[in-house]
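Annotated sample (chain length 383).
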Amino acid sequence: MKKINVALVGHKFMGRTHTHAITDAPIFFDLGVEINKKIICANEDSVFDVAKRWGWEKAVLDWREIIEDKEIDSVSIAAPSKVHAEIAIAAAKAGKHVFCEKPLALDMEDAEAMVKAVEEAGVVNMVGFNFRRVPALCLAKQLIEEGVLGELYHFRAIWSQDWLTDPKFPIAWRLKKALAGYGTHGDLGAHLIDIARFLVGDIDEVCCVQKTFNKMRPVAVFEDGLYAEAGEDMAEVDVDDASQMLATFKDKNMMAYFESTRNGTGHKNQNRIEVAGSKGAIIWDEEKLNELEYYNDGDPAHVRGFRRVMVGEAIHPYMANWFPVGHIIGYGDTFVNEYYDYFTAIKNGEGVTPNFRDGLMVQKVLDAAEQSAIERKWKKVQY
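Output written by the structure step:
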């Protein structure tokens, strides 16, 4: 049986999630290949304990050791955006397949260089827009493509969290432009933009406003994922913590609205998608990940309304490989679905989506929105 030797950069929130997915993909899916968790890398000594607990054969402090290791076939990058480009480009040049978290890069220049590197090397490349692997959203895409919603009118996306409502929450890496590249706009908004591309198509023009409600925050003395401890020093936040964007789509008579915020008091993780057309509509919310609300305007008037579809039947995307009907999957399991497709692409020597070029397309929308917010006017996305 063919083997895929995997290395992972990152050991916090996303590193944990990727480890779960890499471990479980061959448990739930018949991959036809052997997956070996060879090396995990981070720049903290805690990675050595993590490697033992999570079942990695080896831990290192320098990602360059991964690149130099000829046994490694695939590199997963689950670290801050600042390091995405350097690691991904080096991995591609070494002939290694690359799975990179979103947003693809710190800026447009890095994103374009990453796309160039993987395409010239001919390696399998994937960007971590995991919501494309939510069975309920896959079903939504199927309904849209079947035309049951009719002519599409509206796309609405709201991602609302509230972990920054406390002005004493410290400046973790996601609140630093030098490390993250963007604020909520790039962290949460990138997912929403990709979902829009997945369900509807490419965005044409954007008009964006952004806000940083608490400009001064304590400096973090410790952080782990979305948890951080504050010190006594204060510093200025240089990224947005709320963003609202209007948009139009290429070649479609549609309107779109996107909102992402970390100040949505009361919402821990509301990620809500709506698509409305002339004949029907769908609603999905991450807090009810396994459900899709579907409205059919052709239903008899006395029973017309949104119906809840539990997306857990074997006929639904990916679900035949999971638990018996009625046993739901969770957030981390969408990453398992991702790795199933990624490892399958490596085995078969074929492409997979969303790839780095898809990540670049999202980056172009992010940059157009940033410029719109600065210039206070509509901006066309430069594809």
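Annotation: The chain has a mean pLDDT of 97.
Annotation: The CA atoms of residues 208 and 372 lie 6 Å apart.
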